[in-house]
Amino acid sequence: MNHPAFAIPAPAHQAAILIVDDAPASLGLLQDILQGQGYRTFVATSGERALDLAQRIQPDLILLDVMLPGLDGLETCSRLKHQAATADIPVIFVSACSDTADIVAGFEHGAADYIAKPLRLPEVCSRVRAQLQIRSASQSHTHQVKRLRMIVDGMDEGLMLLGQDGRIQYTNPASERCLGYPGRELAGRPLAELLAEPAARDFAAWFDQSDDETLARCRGTREVLLRQPDGSLRAMDLSLSPLASGEQLWVAVLHDITHHKQSENALQRAALADPLTGIANRRQFDACLEREWQRAMRNARPLSLLVLDVDHFKLYNDLLGHAAGDQCLQAIASTLQAHALRATDLAARYGGEEFVLLLPDTPHEGAAKVAEAIRADIERLRVPSPRSTTSDFVTVSVGASTIVPTQFDECRSLFQAADRAMYDAKAAGRNRVTAVGAGYAWEAMHRVLAR
Ligand SMILES: Nc1nc2c(ncn2[C@@H]2O[C@H](COP(=O)(O)OP(=O)(O)OP(=O)(O)O)[C@@H](O)[C@H]2O)c(=O)[nH]1
C-alpha cells in the first residue's frame, strides 16, 4: 500500500529497516508504509529472532514492539545496545503502552524514539526519517573523524596540541617518535622542557607571560634542537600557530630536518676539505690559524707552524705521471695527519705539493721534534723517486716557526717565517728541518741575549 500524501523522497541509499512485531496486522501495516517510502524492510516476530537478524543484516533502523512473546521489547533493546555490532543501530519503540512511565522505560533501555499506537502514519514517516537522518549525519561524522585520525596518525610530521601554558595536551605518533617518548609521558609536560637552549628559554618565557602580544611572537617556524631521552639532540623545524577555533590552544608541528642538517654538515665539511687528500684545505687552515692566533695571544702561549714541501716533485711527476704524483701526495698527507695528535692540531694541504701543520700551545723545541719525526716518517715510506738528486726516495723539506703572539705581531708573520725556514732547508740540501722563532717577543729576547 502506498501513501502518496506522506511520500518523502527516497533516501540516497535504500535504508534497511527491521520491523519487530508479533501482531501480523501492525507488522503488515508498517511494512507497507515503509516500503511505500522506498525503504527495504525485514521482519521479525520475536525478540530472539530480531537479535539474530539485526546482527546479520545490520539494518539502519529497528522498529521494535514492546510487548513480545518471550524476550520482550525492552530486554531486546537492551541486548542490542550491549552488542558492539548492533549498539549503534537506532531503535524506535512502537507500542500501545503509551504512559509516560512506559515511554521513559523505553528511553532508559536505549531507544532513540517512541511511537505510540494506534499508528498515525505521518508521524511514523517523520520519526523514521528523522532517525535515519540523525544516523546518517552521525555516520558521516564518525567517518570524517576516522579519516582525520588516519591522516594525523599517518603524518610524517609531529603534531601536538599545547595549552596556553605551553603544556602538551595531545601528541600524534610522529611527534612521539620525534620526541622519543610515548604519549602518556608527554601529556602535561611543558614543550620547553624538551627543547635545548636557546629555544627552551624563549618558549618558557613566551608561555609564562602568555599575554597575547608575547604569544604572538612564538608564532611561525624556527629551527630547534629536541633533547632525546638518551641525551642526544635532534634538529627539527618547529611551527607554532594558534588553533583557529578560538579555543586557547596552540598547534605545534615538528618537521624532522636531520637529513637536511646532515647534508648541510657534509657540504660544510666538503667545503673545508682538500678533495685529493681528504685533510683540511687552505680555507680551513686560514680560519683555524686566525682563531688559534687570537687564543695564543690572549693566553700568551706559543703557537707553532710547520710548512712542508715535497722535494723535486716536478721531476717525480714528470717521470712517473700525474696520477702517481697524486698518490704520493695522499701518502704524505696521511703521514702528516698521523702527527696531528692533539684535538687542536690541524694538518692541511696549503696548495700543490705544500702542506702545513698548525700546532697550538707548542714551543719551539716541540715543533722541531714533530717536524723531524714527520720528515723521517716520509723518508721511511720509501716511495721511489728515481730522478731525485737528494735521495732514492721521496723526501720533504720542513720549515718550523714558533711565536708567542703579541699585539705588535701580524698573523701572517708566523707563516712567512715557517715558509722562509722551509726554503732555507731546501737551500741547505733538502730532506731536512729548519726551525726558527718569530715575532716581537722572540726578537726582544734575542736582543737582550745579544747584549
Ligand atoms: N701530481 C700532482 N702534482 C702536483 C699537484 N700540485 C702541484 N703539483 C706539482 O708539484 C710540482 C712542484 O714543483 P716545483 O714547485 O718546481 O718544486 P719541486 O719540483 O718539488 O722542487 P723543490 O720544491 O725545489 O724540491 C709541479 O710539477 C706541480 O705540477 C697535484 O695536486 N698533483
UniProtKB/TrEMBL annotation:
It comes from the Bacteria. Keywords: Nucleotidyltransferase, Phosphoprotein, Transferase. Pfam families: GGDEF, PAS_4, Response_reg. Gene3D superfamilies: 3.30.70.270, 3.40.50.2300, PAS domain (3.30.450.20). SUPFAM superfamilies: CheY-like, Nucleotide cyclase, PYP-like sensor domain (PAS domain). Residues 301-438 form the GGDEF domain. GO terms for molecular function: diguanylate cyclase activity. Residues 16-132 form the Response regulatory domain. Residues 144-195 form the PAS domain. The modification 4-aspartylphosphate is found at residue 65. Its EC number is 2.7.7.65. It catalyses: 2 GTP = 3',3'-c-di-GMP + 2 diphosphate. It is an enzyme of class 2 (transferase). This is diguanylate cyclase. It comes from Massilia consociata.
